[in-house]
User: Which sequence fits this backbone?
């Protein structure tokens, strides 16, 4: 089975939705010396209360960015780095 980003995200979401399950990704990232573990989410997902409850859990995510803003930031970085 090919494991890609969508598969990984789906599996992670399923684990987080299980009763009492918590990966504590942000806590683990901080424990490893990182500033935070974050997520980029699309606008449509912001109206899903179950999804938002997971994203608001600071043990799981220390930073949340709207996907269009993340893509814009990447593009601006590419323009600056590559000159266009």
Assistant:
């Amino acid at each position: 089975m090919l494991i890609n980003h969508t598969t990984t995200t789906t599996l992670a979401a399923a684990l987080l939705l299980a009763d009492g399950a918590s990966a504590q990704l942000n806590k683990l990232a901080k424990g490893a010396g990182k500033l935070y573990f974050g997520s980029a989410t699309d606008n449509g997902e912001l109206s899903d209360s179950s999804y938002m409850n997971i994203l608001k859990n600071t043990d799981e995510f220390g930073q949340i960015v709207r996907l269009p803003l993340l893509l814009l930031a990447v593009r601006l970085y590419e323009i600056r780095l590559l000159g266009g």
The beta strands are 38-41, 63-66.
